[in-house]
Design a protein that fits this description.
Blueprint lengths: L19 H14 L10 H30 L3 E5 L9 H7 L3 H10 L4 H5 L11 H15 L4 E6 L7 E5 L2 E5 L12 E12 L2 E5 L7 E5 L2 E13 L6 E11 L5 H5 L8 H9 L10 H29 L6 H4 E6 L6 H12 L4 H11 E4 L10 E3 H7 L1 H21 L4 H7 L2 E2 L5 E3 H7 L3 E4 L2 H9 L3 H6 L4 E3 L6 H7 L2 H11 L20 H26 L8 E6 L8 H17 L8 E6 L7 H18 L8 E5 L5 H10 L2 E4 L11 H7 L3 E4 L5 H8 L5 E2 L4 H10 L3 H6 L2 H12 L11 H9 L5 H19 L2 H14 L5 H13 L2
Parallel strand pairs: 1-2, 1-10, 2-9, 10-11, 11-15, 15-16, 17-18, 17-20, 18-19, 20-21, 21-22
Antiparallel strand pairs: 3-4, 5-8, 6-7, 8-9, 12-14, 13-14
């Protein structure tokens, strides 16, 4: 007699309790039986792991139901492919979205454990660099919140982006060891393993009277192993999956070589696989770094597509309806090789006709562009691409032939237009253009702010837009208000709730009700008190980490983002030097006390960006130690910028620096986080600043400098920075001081080349915008000097930023691109 239960008869575990007493008991149970510690000797990190395991159990119930629901309904799934997911710490995010924050706090308190202490021990997942990766994390949370079935696909970097330390003001890159003690959030999925190949040859097979079928025979092979992390939506509405790939060798050790004494050679395959998923953005200034980067991009793209197709065949007999059940979003050009890989899988592996595969591929993929910088639109040397991915190179040539013949025949494109849209750049060394591949292989190409989208049509994709005039559309970025208001700024959240109720928690556009309190004196005082408490917290952090004493009553002026010349940290530093000179020269004036904060990482091979960090630290050392300044100005570069640091700095900001060269920042999301948390923005009309001005009102944002059109015209007409510098007393004095070694007495020529670049070409319009920026900063001083006016403006910023929620952005993607 067979007593085996069928799957439908297997009893499901009861949902876990939210009772603090029961959760406390479970924490002790996990501590005892999963970690092997008695509560009397448990360390804070043991309590953290035990707590995460208890929270995770409550997530799993909803996670499994979310998965079952998709199989029942046949809903379309969205797959978000990104080389970065800057998710930050997950415990507070998870318990807050589950509505269990107070219950977990009470459970731990009953055990004598402070949730704030153990939550502070959770490492930041080192899976991203800056805005691109944080946007992907916000989108994952919002997709779960608005009930869209989704997977995020990326790489499980062992070290990810580097940990930044300072050595005499210079950036030093150290490995980030976030996985050193395991990751209790993730689940290894050994059944979801896929073979990934590189190199080798391509053979044509089949009878002479049949269409040829191509078989790629890679010379190298490794395994992509899946690790899943659940991503919880607001109020636990849905739990989606972040699936990250780890590379593993097919043969971990070559025993014959090991036994023969070649101990290093025996581990060659293992080392090669482990290297692939060890570091995010390996320096690509050399051929080895470029090859590793391309390997990473293909590795995670291929594994993700094999996984997507496998899952599709579990429910449907073939791929003819793939585009109706699957939407794949490419986050920038990093996963663009997916276009060629999908064609290989559909036509070579699954036997689909090439033209039919191309039609399905284009209907399935969509592509988000994040940059107008030509150098950031990835391209790869043809010899490198052909050596690593020979079949994909053939496919790209075939696609290119179809595109160019159509453009020549149907659109009557001329030679220059043909050269611009080609997937192969013929200027100099031949290169594969990944941006063009992503464009032609997708049915939708979106920008991330209104300005950026229009500039895409006019600049980097002008000719492809002419070929496919309906594909480009705009989806202005957003941020998740759960992490970037409710969790990072509980004081402000409580104050808003007290004033207008809690409807904004489910719809941030309800924050507009706060407008009525902008001129309310009592509310302004409470708003100011919350801001001061956040500033005290940041001042304490800087004091404990860096030994710098800060006055929380000073204006906290903050610029935190990746260090890049177009983001113009250099402009901010030069203005600090000019202000320093003015304070010393005119001590009789009533100067506004100000602390200028910087934080961000420079790419290891980006010389000028690293030099800008050194300049910030050198300027800080001089200004902060000059008694003539009387504490009216301080400069602080806070090392190792990450999500956790941002969660302290954003709520503490009085002034938000969004000062990129107009026409070069695609969107920005830091600008949205600062505004939502009640900071006044000083910025150019660049990226999403344009839409922020429209939403918060021109009176509640400080705009300066050239527009994108002005910048383009200045470059075309012959920008003359030397004349501008010589005509600006403050700018010329500040540049002279920097270039002559006032701030670098140990090496007086350290910054000479950096400053010389401003005199000779000033591509990023630092000199061009300086006077306008300096004047805008003095306008900010005047507003600050009137606290009633200052808080009216900053309250209106919080009240009017609700539109910039990633929930709104995702709903637009879902209805207009994914049809999900």
């Amino acid at each position: 007699m067979n007593n085996t239960l069928s799957p439908v008869d297997i009893p499901q575990p009861a949902p876990r309790s939210s009772n603090p007493r029961i959760m406390a008991e479970e924490i002790i149970e996990r501590l005892t039986y999963r970690i092997g510690k008695d509560a009397k000797v448990a360390k804070p990190h043991d309590w953290l792991t035990a707590t995460i395991l208890v929270v995770r159990d409550r997530i799993i119930d909803r996670w499994m139901e979310s998965t079952r629901k998709v199989y029942r309904t046949g809903d379309k799934r969205v797959y978000y492919l990104s080389l970065e997911f800057l998710i930050g710490r997950l415990m507070r995010d998870a318990v807050s979205n589950l509505g269990l924050l107070q219950e977990i706090r009470d459970a731990l308190s009953s055990l004598g454990v402070d949730i704030e202490v153990i939550a502070g021990l959770e490492p930041d997942a080192a899976l991203g660099n800056g805005g691109l990766g944080r946007l992907a994390a916000c989108f994952m949370e919002s997709m779960a919140t608005v009930d869209i079935p989704a997977y995020g696909y990326g790489i499980r970097y062992v070290h990810g982006l580097f940990r930044q330390q300072m050595a005499d003001g210079w950036q030093v890159e150290l490995p980030e060891t976030w996985l050193a003690h395991g990751n209790p959030w993730e689940f290894e999925r050994r059944e979801s393993s896929y073979e990934i190949g590189f190199g080798g040859s391509v053979e044509s097979v089949g009878a002479y009277d049949e269409p040829p079928r191509y078989v790629w025979k890679p010379a190298e092979r490794m395994i992509a192993m899946a690790y899943d992390t659940p991503i919880v939506g607001w109020r636990g509405a849905r739990v989606n999956t972040l699936r990250l790939w780890s590379a593993q060798p097919i043969d971990p050790i070559l025993l014959d070589a090991f036994n023969a004494g070649d101990h290093i050679g025996a581990l060659r395959e293992s080392n090669k696989a482990e290297t692939l998923t060890r570091v995010l953005y390996p320096a690509d200034a050399n051929p080895a770094g470029q090859e590793l980067r391309l390997r990473q991009e293909y590795f995670f793209s291929s594994a993700s597509l094999q996984d997507i197709l496998r899952r599709h065949l579990q429910q449907y007999p073939d791929f003819t309806n793939l585009h109706e059940k699957v939407a794949i979003q490419l986050n920038d050009t990093h996963p663009a090789v997916s276009i060629a890989e999908m064609m290989r899988l559909l036509s070579d592996v699954h036997g689909m006709d090439f033209d039919e595969a191309w039609d399905i591929t284009r209907q399935t993929f969509s592509y988000t562009n994040h940059t107008l910088l030509p150098e950031a639109l990835e391209s790869w040397p043809v010899p490198l691409f052909e050596r690593l991915l020979p079949r994909h190179m053939q496919i790209i040539y075939t696609i290119n032939t179809k595109i160019l013949l159509d453009a020549r025949k149907e659109k009557k494109f001329g030679d220059s237009q043909i050269r611009a849209i080609s997937l192969i750049d013929e200027n100099g060394d031949r290169r594969v253009r990944m941006g063009n591949l992503a464009f032609v292989g997708s049915h939708s190409i979106n920008g991330v702010s209104a300005l950026h989208t229009e500039l895409m049509k006019e600049t980097v994709f002008a000719n492809l837009h002419a070929l496919y005039p309906t594909r480009i559309n705009n989806k202005t970025n957003g941020i998740t208000p759960r992490r970037w208001l409710m969790q990072c700024n509980p004081g402000l959240t409580d104050l808003i709730r007290e004033a207008i109720g809690d409807a904004f928690e489910d719809d941030t556009e309800k924050l507009t009700a706060l407008d009525a309190f902008a001129t309310d004196k009592a509310f302004q005082e409470k708003f100011a008190a919350v801001k001061r408490a956040n500033k005290v917290k940041l001042a304490n952090l800087v004091g404990s980490r860096m030994g710098i004493r800060l006055d929380p009553s000073a204006m906290f002026d903050i610029q935190i983002k990746r260090i890049h010349e177009y983001k113009r940290q250099l402009l901010n530093i030069i203005e600090a030097v000019a202000l320093y000179d003015q304070i010393r020269s005119h001590p009789e004036l009533d100067w506004v006390p100000r602390v200028k904060f910087f934080a961000g990482k420079a790419a290891p091979s980006y010389h000028n960006a690293k030099l800008i960090i050194k300049l910030a630290n050198d300027v800080a050392r001089v200004i902060n130690n000059d008694p003539a300044v009387r504490g009216l100005l301080k400069v602080v570069f806070v090392p190792n910028y990450n999500v956790t640091l941002a969660e302290t700095m954003v709520p503490a900001a009085d002034l938000s620096e969004q000062i990129s060269t107009a026409g070069m920042e695609a969107s920005g999301t830091g600008n949205m986080k600062f505004g939502l948390n009640g900071a006044l923005t000083i910025g150019t009309l660049d990226g999403a600043n344009v839409e922020m001005r429209d939403h918060v009102g021109a009176d509640n944002i400080v705009i300066f400098g050239m527009t994108a059109d002005d910048v383009a015209k200045a470059r075309a007409d012959g920008h003359n920075p030397r004349a501008i510098i010589e005509g600006s007393r403050e700018l010329s004095q500040a540049l002279s001081a920097i270039a002559s070694g006032v701030f670098s007495p140990d090496d007086r020529s350290r910054f000479a080349e950096l400053i010389d670049g401003l005199y000779n070409h000033d591509w990023f319009m630092v000199a061009g915008d300086f006077d306008s920026y300096a004047k805008a900063q003095r306008d900010v001083d005047q507003i600050w000097s009137d606290p009633v006016l200052w808080y009216e403006k900053t309250i209106r910023n919080t009240a009017r930023m609700g539109w910039f929620s990633s929930d709104r952005t995702i709903r637009q993607y879902a209805s207009e691109i994914w049809r999900a």
